[in-house]
Amino acid sequence: MEIYKADVVIVGGGGAGLRAAIAVAEADPSLRIALVSKVYPMRSHTVAAEGGSAGVKQASDSLEYHFNDTVHGGDWLCEQDVVEYFVAHCTEELTQLEHWGCPWSRTPDGHVNVRAFGGMKIERTWFAADKTGFHMLHTLFQTSIKYPSIKRFDEHFCVDLIVEDGRVQGIVAIEIASGEFTLVEARSVVIATGGAGRVFRENTNGGVVTGDGMALAYRHGVPLRDMEFVQYHPTCMPGTGLLFTEACRGEGGFLVNKDGYRYLQDYGLGPAEPTPRNKAMELGPRDRLSQAFWYEQQKGRTIEGPHGSVVHLDLRHLGEQKLRERLPQIYELAEQFMGVDPAHAPIPVRPAVHYTMGGILVDGRCAAPLPGLYAAGECSSVGIHGANRLGSNSLSELLVFGKVAGVEAARHARSVPAGDSARLLKQAQAVEQRVQGLKTKSGGSERIATLRKEMAQTMEDGCGIYRLADTMQQTCDKLDELKDRFRNVNLEDKSSVWNTEWLLAIELEYQLDVAQSMACSAINRRESRGAHQRLDGFEQRDDVNFLAHSQAHYVAGGPPRIDYGPVKITKSQPGTRAYGAAGEKAEQERKASNV
Amino acid sequence: MSEMQKTIEIEVLRYHPEKDKEPHRQVFEVPFTDDMSVLQGVQYIKDYLDGSLSFRWSCRMAICGSCGMMINGVPNLSCQTFLRDYYPARVRVEALAHFPIERDLVINMEGFIEKLESIQPYIIPKEERTLAQGEYLQTPEQLNAYEQFSSCINCLLCYAACPQFGLNSSFIGPAATALLHRYNVDSRDGGKAERMELINSEEGVFNCTAVGYCSEVCPKHVDPANAVNQNKTNSAADYFLRFLAPKGGAK
Question: Cis link prior to B121 (omega < 30° from 0)?
Fold first, then answer.
């Protein structure tokens, strides 16, 4: 086994991991940083984010507005002190990225431009055409090359954390090219492995988004918080689930049903006006828009396509020139993958799973309850998204909390002694033996792809846009069955070099654990809030019993134990969550009552 | 079912260093639908026919840059190349040309990563600015000067297309030159002089024989050939200037 002695190891080379690595390097250049990623960093799924990243920019905007939009958007399940920190640091971090070369789109006088986004009162979404995540990721990756203390372990697949003396002290990874194991010793570990959307059938996520870091922390006793909140993005490609950014609507696109009718006006989001109004109609929040699609489908007002019901995303009135300038990637996706020219025909779309609101429980400084462990980005639950994330908050989250995680991990690394290498190695060898066992065992009969497909289908059936106790229970039972069958999984490939079948099996095991935390958290939340909507007698939000974060605790060999933690309220008491004209009226009433 | 399932043959170049002396071909029959990408065809093989087939992929939407392959001899992203464009004929899929094969469709790209790291692909500020001072001003025209070259997804199709890289793998090549150019022409950057030393070296732009195939295969319209040739002009001017100025003379 290879051994590398680091001070801080970061698992995940996407936006949050890279930002954390740079933060450690800047905090203390003498610290040895290991950046471990199962893909080359620029392949990480941050690359696929399209629309933009939120930060207060205009004189007409304020931190208070951004705070309110985020907390209301999250249906008050946010940690409000953390949201306050977040909104106060977004703009600084986005400016830092500008200094590092990110090609933000500009106004004619050379300032960074901002666009409208769903659920945001004022335009505050910084963007680089419709490839914002791509540009942020490449900027961070290329900038990270400046720092000699960052040692990258590209295409190294993390299989476990090493916990010794009650604190995390390293990780074990497989070098994919050789199949060899490496122990990375470290005094702090930052998990930045992204979300888990691939546990669902139709999703916008890349193949790498398999919840690895969530499962690793969870198995070591760290709770996964608010896992029932899974975001359906309303405008995705039927069949593949590929994303058509919310910026399509920020730029003025319409959503229409089979009659050409802008149906969102029937769901408390109106009035319908010819140009976009913030926090209304197509610029409502994602949970509400996906839910409206579901109702249109029930009413028979959607269009039947080869990959299920669709509505139309109509961009024609924006004209080819604007579409090519502001939404070039969307234009090409529609043309190449669907044969639709969006300047001349509407794009068929339907909701698909996009984002995991919950994740590894951490405090406002990104620290998990396990000493030495930090998490940032989609894998974490730092508390800013609540029950529904607003578009363009997650890219800013990568930066703000990637940096916090790096700074805190560096501080922790300096405050604790190095571990006992012999004992760490002994643990790592046991991990190697266990993980090799998955590959070398014989006699299995279950195909990985079959198990994965059944998992993704049952998650869609039970934990979709609307949920019922019966089907959620079926999903929980099915996941039990799949975990059982996984023990009988068969690997055709017993070799060492680039054995991706082996890695897929390990990922599937991660996914089954994460899926189970989602389904069990969902069935236990007997109310409707944000992205968790029930139709079986729990249609209302219930602040008396469920203004609380769910926490799923791993139980070996069975379903997780679910308990609840408090929600931090600082200045926004839970109120009615309204958009469109109703939202404006509610806001006026709130203001009047405060006077 | 009402209609017989249509199928298509995919011929895959296989190579396993633990077993094979040399690469060989294997043909798989895969269910075919009109909207299937080549990547989806290859994924079907791995899921249901042969779990040992190895290849890289992730985003499925031509932005992560992982899934480049030779498809009927042409470098392409397999996620945005569609089986319908070959059906009913057989499709041939191979690892990207000009790179060492690690296994099956997986190439070794360490050499490219080293090139990328070597060109100082980050802003070396022309003038320092604190965060409190806010953003650098950059007009849409100034953005336009480099934006195209910043769109490279590192998919390496251009290297698989480049005959010079095929002959000499130390040639810096199209994507790394485009990236170097991207930073050199960014209005915020002052690092051109340092970077030009690399481009003037033996492995620099003069290896290019202006075939232009790199730009033709680029899925993101980066036009690396344009970057290479602009740098030939820069490099030529630079060559003479270096006799006058102490360092590079590119300022």
Answer: no
Is 90 exceeded by the pLDDT of residue B211?
no
Nearest CA in chain A to B103: A498
- Residue ranges per structural domain of chain B: 7-107, 110-241
Chain B partners within 8 Å of A138 (Cβ): 150
Would you place residue B239 in the very low, low, confident or very high pLDDT band (cuts 50, 70, 90)?
low
Tell me if A84 is assigned to some domain. no
| Cα→Cα distances A92→A385, A396, A559, B95, Å | 20, 10, 42, 43
How many domains does the structure of chain A reveal?
3
Domain B7-107: which CATH class? alpha beta
Which residue ranges in chain A fall short of pLDDT 50? none
Choice among A72, A249, A541, A577 that is catalytic: A249
The beta-carbon neighbor of B63 closest among A47, A239, A500 is: A47
- Which of A303, A338, A353 is the C-terminal boundary of a domain? A353
Give yes or no: residues A42 and A186 share one domain.
Answer: yes
Query: Under DSSP, is residue A10 helix (H, G, I), strand (E, B) or coil?
Result: strand
Q: Give domain status of residue A78, yes or no.
A: no
ipTM higher than threshold 0.95: yes
pLDDT in tens, A80-106: 999 999 999 999 999 999 999 999 999
* pLDDT recorded at residue B201: 73
Residue of A nearest to B126 (CA): A99
**pLDDT for residue B248:** 41
Per-residue model confidence as pLDDT tens digits over A381-413: 999 999 999 999 999 999 999 999 999 999 999
SS3 of A534, please? strand
Q: Is any Cβ of chain B less than 8 angstroms from the Cβ of A393?
A: no
- With CB atoms and an 8 Å threshold, state whether A43 touches B66: yes
DSSP string, A472-484: HHHHHHHHHHHHH
pLDDT, one tens digit per residue, over B45-79 is 999 999 999 999 999 999 999 999 999 999 999 99
Return the CATH fold of B110-241.
Answer: Fumarate Reductase Iron-sulfur Protein; Chain B, domain 2 (1.10.1060)
CA distance A460 to chain B (A): 20
**Is A467 annotated in the active site?**
no
Residues A8 and A18: their CA atoms lie apart, in Å, by 13
Total Cβ atoms within 10 A of residue B145: 15
- In this structure, are residues B242 and B249 in contact, taking their beta carbons and an 8 Å threshold? yes
Residue whose structure tokens are 């509505």: A311
- The H or E element spanning position A36 is strand A33-36
Percent of chain B with pLDDT over 70: 92
> How many C-beta atoms lie closer than 10 Å to residue A270's C-beta?
18
Distance from CA of A438 to the nearest CA of B (A): 15
Domain final residue pick, A427, A458, A474:
A427
The whole-angstrom separation of Cα A66 and Cα A418 is: 42
Tell whether A146 is covered by a domain. yes
Q: Which residues of B touch A240 (CB under 8 A)?
A: 60
Tell me the shortest Cα–Cα distance from A244 to chain B, in angstroms: 11
pLDDT at A23: 98
Q: What are phi and psi of A361, to 5 degrees?
A: -65, 120
Domain that holds residue A150: 2-50+133-231+355-427
Report residue B231 as tokens. Answer: 């740098």
Among residues A208, A232, A224, A206, which one has the least CA distance to residue A515?
Answer: A224
| A257 in a structural domain | yes
Are A549 and A450 found together in one domain? yes
A88 touches chain B (CB under 8 A): no
